[in-house]
Amino acid sequence: MASNNPFEDDYDPKLPAAPIPAGPPSVPISGNPFEMEGVRQAPPPATLLGNAADVAKAASNTFTFGMRDRLGGVQRALTGEAPSYSEGVNQENVDTAMRRERSPYLSVAGDVAGGTAQAFVPGAGVIGRTAGAALGGAGRGALPSIARMAGYGVEGGLLGAAQAGGHTYTGNPEDYARNAMVGGAFGAAVGAPFGHFADVAPRSMAPTPNSEQLRRSASDRYTDTHAVPIDYHADQFRGALDSLQRHLYRVTDPDKSPSVFNTIESGRTGRLQADPAAPTVTPKDIDALRQRLTGVNEPGARQVREFLDRFMGSPIAQASGTDAQRNRVTQILNDARGDYRAGKRTQTVEETNQYAEDRAATANSGANSGNTYRQKLVALLNPKSAEGKWYTPEEKADIRRVTGGEGITDTMRSTGNFLKGITGQVAAGGGVAGALATGDMTPLWGMAAYPVGAAIKGIGNRMTADSAHQLADRMAQRSPLYREWAAVSPTVAGPGLGNTAEATRNALTLQMLEQLRLRGVMSSTEER
């Protein structure tokens, strides 16, 4: 049979010409232009603003679990660009597909940005933290680790199901259900391993006291001893002071420690008592002596303060009051000393952090603030420093965790330095040269290397600063005052993975689902 195709051997010019296939008259991007089939329209050429829009659309669609295209469909229907909501969504799907084809790598970057932004939404990660804690993941060992992995598997599954279902636009309920199941399975597989590294141990919602609140609490506790109805034999108290003074002469004298010896003399003569001739002394009388040595750093001052506390807790010199009342005094004094010590440790870290912040602000435009914090805090570990004597091994370990650096912050700082250095300068220069030579503005993206590097390093510095300020909180949380506040406050699951790990999990899940969509495993387009 003869053909009406002029390029075939049996072409017959008497036959009517072959009809032109329906579709826009455009140049195909693939296939044979002479075949009798529809052609695909080429995507518009890439521009700098177009690339930015490609990133923004991918990021917004990911962040909203696919709702960006649906909202765009609503807008098109309301403005008359589409005859119906479904057709508007279909047009948005076509636009999204065009942008992904035109800018595949930038679209991936947008997906990662959208998933990363989800990790910083308040409340993100609460499902994994809560489920992990409820399943018994607060402890250490294999079983708690399995519990945390199960909890974060649940959260990852929900994330994958939401993303897969949200990016389905067929209008077929079976497609939504199937895609959600596939996405949930992959999301659970990706999210579960992250649970091993999560911290879901319960945390109190109690506020953390600062150093001034701890100092005031210690002072108030000493004052609380005045209300306990107990007193001590005055002659035994003064005899004990004589013995203490003889001991102090081995390490100091009145010239080196005038306040110490004047305080002991006041106690022996009863100058600070309402009735110096009274046969007994009260907790208020003893506290008056202690207050004279508050903040005094003379040799022997600490020994006198400790003697006064021990004397009030001793039953030997007790003239009146019950054992319960004496124990009450002892507990108050222990809590007062605990708040005072925690306050001193917290104050030292607070002042060190403030000095580091001021120092960083005046050097290198604050670009190396993370290093400044570390350098100032590590001085607290010097065994010869006055501050170093205050810290316990556990507290020194907390300090080392900040000064020694963390893997993530070290990596971010190194990456930031790399991009801000010669690499960023070469990328920027090459981008400008490429744009001038070709007339295409796309190479100008190379200019982003330096600001991106600065941003990455800035985030790393901020993370180090946050860790330094959290160090002061940990010091304060070891105080009796914080324990009292925590006892009457609700508890919640621990911090979990943290924003960075959550963002990494989100990005991995999204890219796996995108690969499944590209390979046709999940139907996603043509909403009806």
Explain what this protein looks like in three dimensions:
It is a single chain. The protein is mainly α. The chain has 20 helices and five strands. The chain has helices spanning 48-63, 67-79, 85-102, 104-119, 126-134, 142-166, 173-194, 211-224, 234-248, 258-269, 283-292, 301-312, 323-361, 369-378, 393-403, 407-420, 422-438, 449-476, 480-487, 499-518; strands at residues 203-204, 231-233, 280-281, 318-320, 491-492. The model is unreliable at 26-34 (pLDDT under 50).
What's the gist of this structure?
The chain has 528 residues and is mainly α. It is built from 20 helices and five strands.
Key terms:
20 helices; mainly alpha; 2% strand; 528 residues
Which percent range fits the helix content? 55-70%
Structural class: mainly alpha
Gross morphology: elongated
Average pLDDT, all residues:
80
Side by side, the strands of the main sheet go: 3-2-4
**Radius of gyration of CA atoms, rounded to a whole number:** 36 Å
What's the total number of strands? 5
Q: What is the strand content?
A: under 5%
SSE series? HHHHHHHEHEHHEHHEHHHHHHHEH
Poorly predicted residue ranges: 26-34
Largest sheet descriptor: 3 strands, antiparallel
Helix count equals: 20
Distance between the termini: 42 Å
